[in-house]
Amino acid sequence: MKQKLTRIRLRPPVFIFLHDLLMISLAWLGAFWLRFNLEPLSHSAWRSSLELLPWILSIQGLTFGYYGLHRGVWCYASFHDLLKIAQTIATGTAAITMVLFFNESLDALPRSIPVLYGLLALTLLGAPRFLFRLLYAHRPNTAPEKKRALIVGAGSAAETLIRELSNDRKAEYHPVVLVDDDPRKKGRQIRGIQVAGGCHKIPKLVTKHDIDCILIAIPSATNEQMRRIVQYCEESGVPFLTLPSFHETFPCSQSIRNLRQVSIDDLLGRAPNELDWLSIHAHLQGKAVIVTGGGGSIGSELCRQLAALPVSRLVILDNCEFNLYKIETQLKEEFPHLEIVPKLGSITDEAAVDHLFKTYRPEVVFHAAAYKHVPLLEDQIRETILNNVIGTHIVAQTALRHQVEEFVLISSDKAVNPCNVMGATKRAAEMLCQSYNTLDATRFIIVRFGNVLNSAGSVVPLFHEQIQAGGPVTVTHPEVSRYFMTIPEACQLIMQAAAIGEGGEVFVLDMGDPIKICYLAEQMIRLYGKRPGIDIEIRYTGLRPGEKLTEELFHKHEYLLETPYPKLMLARSPVCDPKIIEKFLSQLWKTCQNYDETQALILLQALVPEYRHHLEQAAAAERHPQSSEPIYHEESK
C-alpha cells in the first residue's frame, strides 16, 4: 500500500488532469442516469449525452487549466482545495449552460441536467482527493519513533502546531495531551487531543502519559506566566520547547519550524511596548542619522530599528573593525535600498568626527559609544574619562557647530550616585549634555536605563559559557541585584524618547523590579536542564571593584514627571553651568594628555560630587579649589 501511495503521489500533473476529465465524463453521464430515475437511458438520451460530451470535456478542461486544479498535492488536500474544485465546477457549468443555450441544444435538454452534473462533478473530483489524504495519513509509519509530546495551551497556536505535527511525517513529535489554565477548555478536544486540565498538572501528566517532551504553544503568555509554566516543566524533568511570542515572529506564522529553547528573555523580559510609531516615523522621516558606537550591542540593534524607519541615510561610527563589518553586512542585506555609511573611527578623534559631520550633515545623533565594563574600567581611569567624557564632549560640540537638530545620549543607571569610574563618567556626560542644551538650537536628550539582557557586557553570555563548561557559575554576592530589559525594548524606548523630547530632559526607562543575579543564574541553569547547586555549582566570589549591591534610576535631586508612555518616565533635575563644565573639561583634557590619572580622578570627583572612589581621594577632591564653586544652576533654555 505504501509503495502504491507513493507512486500515485509522485505522478506528474498530466495524470491528475486525465483523472479529472474521466470524472467529468462520469459526472455528465451520471447526471442523465439520475435524471431518468436510474433507469436505462433511451436511445435518444444516450445519443444526446454522447454528442454533447466533447463540448463538456473541452469547456471543463479549459477551466481546469485556468484554475490549476491539476497542480494540487492530494496527500495535503484541504478545505481550500475543495473551494477551488467548487469554483472550477461552477465556472464550467455556467459556461456549458451558455454554450448549450446559444447552440439551441438546451431546448431538448432537461433543465435539471446541469445542476445534477455540477453536484456529481464536485463529489467525483473531491472524494478521491480526500480519500487519498485519509489513506496517506494512516499509512504504515516506517520513520523513527516520534517523541510523545504534551502541549501547553489550547488556543489557535496549539491547533496550528497539532495540525502541522499530524501532517508532517518527518515531524519529531507526536501530540498526546493538552493542558490549559482556562477551566472552560477542560475536557475539550483539539483534533482529537484532549485538554486534561491546568498547567499545574504537567508533572503528573508527564508521568501518566509517558511524555518525552513538552511544547509550550502560548505566544501571548506574559513573562510571569512563562516563569510559572517553566517551573512546572522543570518539575516534570523532561525537555521543553516554546513557540516565540507574537512580537518576535509577526507577521510569520506560529509553526513547528519556530519551536526553540526557552530563553532567559522569555522569563525576565517584559511585554512588548505600546509605542507611538506614527510619531517616531514622523520624527525621523527623511532625516540623516548618525549612531556612534553603532557596532556594539545597543548601537547595532538601534541601527537595525532605525534602518526599518524612513530615514534617508544611516551613518555608523565605531572603532571596532569587526563589529562595524558585521552590522554593515547585516543591514545592507536586509535594507538594500537604504544608504548605509559605515565609518571606522574614534569619538575622541576630533578631526575625524568633524569631517564626518561636515560630509554627511546629520540631523539626528544617537550617541551610544562608551566604555561600559565596570570592574575593568576601575583601573583604566584615563581611558574611561577620555572616551566617555571627552569623547561625548567632542561629539556634542561638533553637533552644536554643525547645527544638528537633536543629540540623544544613551546613559546608564550606573550614573546615579556612582561608586565606580564608569558611572561617574556617564554622569559627567549627562551633565555636559544638559548644560549644552542651554547654548544653541540643538536639542540634547538623555535616555537612562539599566542592564540589557544578552548585551556584550551582560552576565548572561558569561553564565552561558560557564554552564556549558560544567560550572561553576560565578556570582559576586547573594544579594546583588540589577534592573534588566531586552535590547530591542531599550532601543524602541530610546527612539520614542527622541521623538517626544524637547531638549534638556533625562528620560528614564521603566525597568520593572530589580532581579537578583543569583536568581538569574538559577533560572539559566534550569533552562539547560540542570539543577542549581547539584549539577552546576553557584560560587560567590565577592563584590568586584566599583560594584554596587543594588542600582538606582534617579538622583535625589531629580523629580519625576509622567509621559504619555507608561514605560517612559521623565526626570527633571538642575542643570550645570556651561562655563564650569567647560572649565572642568579643559582641565580633564590636560590631565589625559599628561597621563595624570590621579589628578584626572580628583577632577572627576569634583565634577560629580556624589561620586566617591577612595576616602583619601575624596578628601583631596574636597580640598580642590574648584569644588567650592556652584555646579548647578536652574535650567534656562
CATH architectural label of the largest domain:
3-Layer(aba) Sandwich
The name CATH uses for the topology of the largest domain is Rossmann fold
User: What is the straight-line distance between the termini?
Assistant: 84 Å
Radius of gyration: 35 Å
Helix content: 40-55%
CATH superfamily of the largest domain, called what? NAD(P)-binding Rossmann-like Domain
Low-pLDDT parts are 1-11, 246-254, 614-637
Apparent shape: elongated
Number of helices: 23
Major sheet description:
9 strands, mixed
Strand-residue proportion: 5-15%
Layout of strands and helices, then pairs:
Layout: H1 2-9, H2 13-35, H3 43-67, H4 79-102, H5 112-137, E1 147-152, H6 156-167, E2 173-179, E3 189-190, E4 193-194, H7 202-208, E5 213-216, H8 223-236, E6 240-242, H9 246-249, E7 260-261, H10 264-268, H11 277-284, E8 288-292, H12 297-307, E9 313-318, H13 321-334, E10 339-344, H14 350-360, E11 364-367, H15 374-377, H16 381-401, E12 406-412, H17 421-436, E13 443-449, E14 451-453, H18 459-468, E15 473-475, E16 481-482, E17 484-486, H19 487-500, E18 506-509, E19 515-516, H20 517-527, E20 538-540, E21 559-561, E22 568-572, E23 575-576, H21 578-593, H22 597-607, H23 615-623, E24 632-633
Parallel strand pairs: 1-2, 1-5, 5-6, 8-9, 8-11, 9-10, 11-12, 12-13, 13-18, 14-17, 15-20
Antiparallel strand pairs: 3-4, 6-7, 16-19, 18-22, 21-22, 23-24
Helix pairs in contact: 2-3, 2-5, 3-4, 4-5, 7-8, 11-19, 12-19, 14-16, 16-17, 16-21, 17-22, 18-20, 21-22, 22-23
